[in-house]
């Protein structure tokens, strides 16, 4: 199949999933066309089956806001015609599903009928999309998609609760290649980050309020009182500065390392002992799955799709949002003995296998086949 993938190319789960999907589909023989405003960050390898088409929005003094949807829908029309695309797959409803719908309509005028698959990722529904300013357009573009998928059952339930949806929603969970993470870094370079007796705890996110970074630091504060440990915070965002300040106030600034954005996530997870994800909302929690595939147990909140990924008592533990003491206690119970840590590391890696690329990508192929039948 010739598949056009529209996504956000930045650091963030939806862009990562879209990129990994394109790469996996290309490896299965499909021709993939990424259409977005920048080359996706995780798209390192351009192969014969992978193409990237940049959407540029010309600057014009009249525009207070750049009309990205217009440029995207025009680019979609051109690319669908030029490459004879079979299916359009948009990740993140805003504004991609809306732009995709416009492209479909323009193409239909020329008697070209292309199906559109929309994948809902989370904040496009739970945070941004349900805002009254966007809700009518988001509802419309979900209902006008030929097939809609969501990355967890929880997100499907949220979508049906928050919007007036007339379409079916198919749950296709996020995925990861579980085979390529077997000892990718033999020495792990653990000594770069911590002393041999210290446990390494990691958090990775875009450091937005929804991630509850202060809880991450407060949980760590309790852990390091009992167990020698370092905290690595990976990512950039508005909560970094307040978190740095909090660490200085608590006198733990030497134990917390802010690494900024990194393209070496798997290298960092290779020497990590425990992953913290105490989010307010999380439709899936791709970062937790990335930790698990590297054999890192996860302490997370029990919000949204997290219980579908992090299996309580197996790959780590779940707690109520904001239960800092509970999360710290559970973290300590894993970290305080080498045997327990070893057991959880093994179980975490095992639990990730359910989400292997080989199990999930065929589900998207089925979705495309279904979408093609609809037009
Ligand atoms: O977590 C974020 O703020 C980024 C956001 C995104 O759109 O990239 O992540 C969402 O999509 C990911 C991929 O499907 C999910 O793993 C995240 O759980 C989801 N984030 C939220 O629901 C807050």
Automatic annotation (TrEMBL):
Domain Glycosyltransferase subfamily 4-like N-terminal: 11-179
Family annotation (Pfam families): Glyco_transf_4, Glycos_transf_1
Top-level lineage group: Bacteria
Ranges where the Glycosyl transferase family domain occurs: 194-350
Protein name, UniProt field: N-acetyl-alpha-D-glucosaminyl L-malate synthase BshA
Source taxonomy: Bacteria, Pseudomonadati, Bacteroidota, Flavobacteriia, Flavobacteriales
């Amino acid at each position: 199949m010739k598949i056009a993938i529209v996504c956000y190319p930045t650091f963030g789960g939806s862009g990562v999933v879209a990129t990994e999907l394109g790469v996996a589909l290309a490896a299965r023989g499909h021709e993939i066309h990424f259409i977005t405003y920048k080359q996706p960050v995780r798209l390192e390898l351009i192969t014969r089956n992978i193409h990237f088409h940049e959407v540029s929005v010309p600057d014009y003094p009249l525009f207070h806001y750049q009309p990205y949807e217009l440029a995207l829908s025009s680019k979609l029309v051109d690319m669908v015609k030029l490459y004879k695309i079979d299916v359009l797959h948009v990740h993140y409803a805003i504004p991609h599903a809306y732009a995709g719908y416009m492209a479909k309509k323009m193409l239909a005028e020329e008697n070209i009928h292309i199906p559109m698959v929309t994948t809902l990722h989370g904040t496009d529904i739970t945070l941004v999309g349900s805002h009254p300013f966007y809700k009518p357009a988001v509802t419309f573009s979900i209902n006008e998609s030929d097939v809609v998928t969501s990355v967890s059952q929880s997100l499907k339930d949220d979508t049906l609760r928050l919007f007036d949806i007339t379409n079916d929603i198919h749950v296709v969970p996020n995925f990861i290649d579980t085979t390529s993470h077997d000892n990718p870094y033999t020495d792990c370079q653990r000594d770069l980050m911590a002393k041999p007796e210290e446990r390494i705890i990691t958090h990775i996110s875009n450091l937005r309020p929804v991630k509850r970074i202060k809880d991450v630091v407060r949980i760590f504060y309790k852990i390091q009182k009992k167990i020698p440990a370092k905290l690595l915070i990976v990512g950039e965002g508005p909560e970094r500065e307040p978190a740095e300040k909090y660490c200085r106030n608590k006198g733990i600034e030497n134990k917390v390392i802010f690494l900024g954005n990194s393209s070496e996530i798997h290298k960092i997870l290779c020497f990590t002992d425990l992953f913290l994800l105490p989010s307010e909302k999380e439709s899936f929690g791709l970062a937790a799955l990335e930790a698990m595939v590297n054999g890192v147990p996860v302490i997370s909140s029990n919000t949204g799709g997290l219980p579908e990924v992090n299996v309580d008592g197996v790959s780590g533990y779940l707690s109520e949002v904001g239960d800092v003491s509970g999360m710290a206690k559970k973290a300590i119970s894993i970290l305080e003995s080498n045997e327990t840590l070893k057991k959880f590391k093994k179980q975490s890696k095992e639990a990730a296998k359910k989400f292997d690329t080989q199990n999930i990508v065929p589900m998207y192929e089925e979705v495309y086949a279904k979408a093609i039948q609809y037009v």
